């Protein structure tokens, strides 16, 4: 088994939450390079490569990446501030905590939000989305590809197809923070207009970079605004010349870029693209299937209510009635694995979440196997395990 990673000499637990995720040694080294001017040609080359490689990762020829210091949430602000004007309609497809946050962000910038909420563990039926698209004109429709609170995978292609059919001028915005580079997404082919993501999940590098890719159609919507962009830092009119300049390997200043984080992201993108995106997606699908098989073996249920609704980047698992996340997580940590508790309001203690994206999925490093072993043992220590056979299958709590 290859352990081509700093974890071969690990004296720390594996970070198996749904992001930040484990990083390769080369990414860690790139993140600790000495001070480098943002005007240095070495940095311009790295920045230019990041912009080009992101296009390949999301599957676009002419989409415009924005690579800006910040976290995933900054991408919400970028989208809302640049593409929505006061009073315009936005349709938010919410599958949980992050869908709700995105709706809140849109409202912050003056959008009239209609929120289609799925039942927990499910996604909105396409017929319901089609009906909403026929009922009103929306400037944007947003879809959270994987809502990290539930591990539910949205049908981005299905949504984009509906938009094409019922409201082709509406922009399709995908929150891919917990999905990009793990879940299939074909930006140009599916007709996506904005993907919002971040450096610290399946992109495999440290937290600190907000990544957004915008279609030319989205940029033309920005150009046609009647009102000023109501924000300073996130105004794409300021960033567009910066991105174009660095892509041409020429430095240009608006605000100081996160130099080391960009070196690290460039390194992780090189590692991702050393394989094909198809292989990267397949590796995540196979890893997620192994995790789901283990959940079955533990006689537990995923929060996502059907296999086709389960994310390939992470899994949320209901605990038996008798065990709380706060009981399980320390026992996991004692076994060298950090997992996450739940974040669904009122149900947070009833489930736990595992991240299995990035190098945990694409490399033969044993991280997922070690995690699954640790979960089985910790469950058993909590009284579930042999006991599970006697007490029967756990059922998801009523929501
Ligand atoms: C789906 C989704 N959207 C948005 C965010 C916000 O990203 P960040 O925490 O990097 O600001 C997260 C964070 O986990 C997320 O999972």
Detailed description of the structure:
The chain is α/β, with parallel strands linked by helices. It has 2 domains: 6-23 and 276-391, Aspartate Aminotransferase, domain 1, CATH 3.90.1150.10; 31-273, Aspartate Aminotransferase, domain 2. Helices cover 41% and strands 15% of the residues. The chain is built from 15 helices and 14 strands. The protein has helices spanning 25-30, 41-58, 72-83, 97-108, 126-135, 156-166, 187-190, 216-223, 236-247, 259-273, 277-297, 325-334, 359-362, 367-381, 386-391, and strands at 14-15, 64-69, 89-94, 112-117, 140-144, 146-147, 152-153, 171-175, 194-198, 209-214, 314-318, 337-338, 340-341, 351-355. The chain has a 7-stranded mixed beta sheet, sandwiched between helices. Helix 4 (97-108) links the parallel strand 3 and strand 4 (112-117). Helix 5 runs parallel beside helix 6 (156-166) and helix 12 packs across helix 14. The longest helix has 21 residues, at 277-297. It is globular, with a radius of gyration of 21 Å. The model is unreliable at 386-399 (pLDDT under 50). The site of pyridoxal-5'-phosphate has 12 residues, from helix 3.
CATH class division of the largest domain: Alpha Beta
CATH level 4 superfamily of the largest domain? Type I PLP-dependent aspartate aminotransferase-like (Major domain)
Low-confidence segments, given as residue ranges, are 386-399
Q: Say what the CATH topology of the largest domain is.
A: Aspartate Aminotransferase, domain 2
The average pLDDT is 94
Radius of gyration: 21 Å
Distance from N terminus to C terminus (CA atoms, Å) equals 42 Å
SSE order, as H and E? EHHEHEHEHEEEHEHEEHHHHEHEEEHHH
Count up the helices. Answer: 15
So what's the overall shape? globular
What ligands does this structure carry?
A: pyridoxal-5'-phosphate
How much of the polypeptide forms β-strand, as a percent range? 5-15%
Largest sheet: 7 strands, mixed
If classified by CATH, what would the architecture of the largest domain be?
A: 3-Layer(aba) Sandwich
Integer count of domains: 2
Determine the fraction of residues in helical runs and give it as a percent range.
40-55%
């Amino acid at each position: 088994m290859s352990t081509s990673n700093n974890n071969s000499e690990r004296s720390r637990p594996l970070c198996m939450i749904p992001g930040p995720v484990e990083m390769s040694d080369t990414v860690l080294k790139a993140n600790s390079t000495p001070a480098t001017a943002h005007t240095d040609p070495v940095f311009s080359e790295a920045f230019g490569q990041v912009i080009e490689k992101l296009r390949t990762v999301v599957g676009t020829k002419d989409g415009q990446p924005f690579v800006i210091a910040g976290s995933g949430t900054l991408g919400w602000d970028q989208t809302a501030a640049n593409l929505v004007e006061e009073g315009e309609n936005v349709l938010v497809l919410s599958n949980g905590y992050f869908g709700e946050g995105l709706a809140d962000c849109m409202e912050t910038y003056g959008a009239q939000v209609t929120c289609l909420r799925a039942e927990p563990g499910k996604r909105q039926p396409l017929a319901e989305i089609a009906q909403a698209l026929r009922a009103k004109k929306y400037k944007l429709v947003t879809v959270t590809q994987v809502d990290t609170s539930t591990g539910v995978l949205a049908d981005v292609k299905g949504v984009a197809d509906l938009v094409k059919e019922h409201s082709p001028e509406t922009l399709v915005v995908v929150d891919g923070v917990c999905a990009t580079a793990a879940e299939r997404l074909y930006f140009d082919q599916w007709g996506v207009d904005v993907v919002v993501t971040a450096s610290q999940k399946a992109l495999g590098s440290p937290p600190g970079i907000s990544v957004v890719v915008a279609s030319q159609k989205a940029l033309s919507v920005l150009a046609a605004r009647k009102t000023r962009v109501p924000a300073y830092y996130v105004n794409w009119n300021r960033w567009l010349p910066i991105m174009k300049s660095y892509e041409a390997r020429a430095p240009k200043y608006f605000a100081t870029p996160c130099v080391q984080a960009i070196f690290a992201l460039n390194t992780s993108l090189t590692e991702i693209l050393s394989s094909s995106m198809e292989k990267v997606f397949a590796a995540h699908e196979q890893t997620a299937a192994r995790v789901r098989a283990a959940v079955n073996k533990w006689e537990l249920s995923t929060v996502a209510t059907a296999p086709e609704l389960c994310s390939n980047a992470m899994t949320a698992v209901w605990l038996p009635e008798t065990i709380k996340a706060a009981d399980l997580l320390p026992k996991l940590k004692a076994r060298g694995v950090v997992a996450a508790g739940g974040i669904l309001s009122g149900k947070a203690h009833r489930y736990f979440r595992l991240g299995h994206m990035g190098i945990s999925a694409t490399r033969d490093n044993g991280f997922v196997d070690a995690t699954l072993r640790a979960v089985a043992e910790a469950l058993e220590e909590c009284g579930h395990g042999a006991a599970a056979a006697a007490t029967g299958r756990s059922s998801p709590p009523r929501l």
